[in-house]
């Protein structure tokens, strides 16, 4: 039986930022690209759990495909459907994701 994912929620501050950016005339595609999940959270998470990041060298797409696929799954399954109010909440939910859900 699959688990139902919770709907993503956004803070009022985030919503206001989006409205302000749209009203300023910034193209929607630029706003989306700017606000997408970036590697900072991945870096923080890896550092928190003392995990060494290891990516392939430039020009070696076969090794990189595995990393990119992993990031895509992580974002789709864990990051996008969740919001975290505290670092501790992130740690607990990430632990559950890695050790129970997957």
TrEMBL record:
It comes from Enterococcus saccharolyticus subsp. saccharolyticus ATCC 43076. It holds the Pfam family rve_2. One of its GO terms (biological process) is DNA integration. InterPro entries: Integrase_cat-core, RNaseH-like_sf. This is Integrase catalytic domain-containing protein. It comes from the Bacteria. Residues 68-99 form the Integrase catalytic domain.
């Amino acid at each position: 039986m699959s688990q139902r994912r919770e709907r993503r929620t956004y803070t009022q501050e985030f919503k206001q930022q989006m409205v302000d950016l749209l009203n300023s005339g910034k193209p929607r595609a630029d706003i989306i690209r700017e606000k997408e999940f970036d590697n900072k959270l991945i870096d923080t998470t890896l550092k928190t759990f003392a995990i060494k990041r290891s990516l392939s060298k430039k020009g070696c797409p076969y090794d990189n495909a595995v990393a990119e696929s992993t990031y895509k799954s992580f974002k789709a399954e864990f990051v996008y459907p969740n919001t975290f109010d505290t670092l501790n909440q992130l740690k607990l939910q990430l632990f559950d994701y890695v050790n129970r859900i997957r």
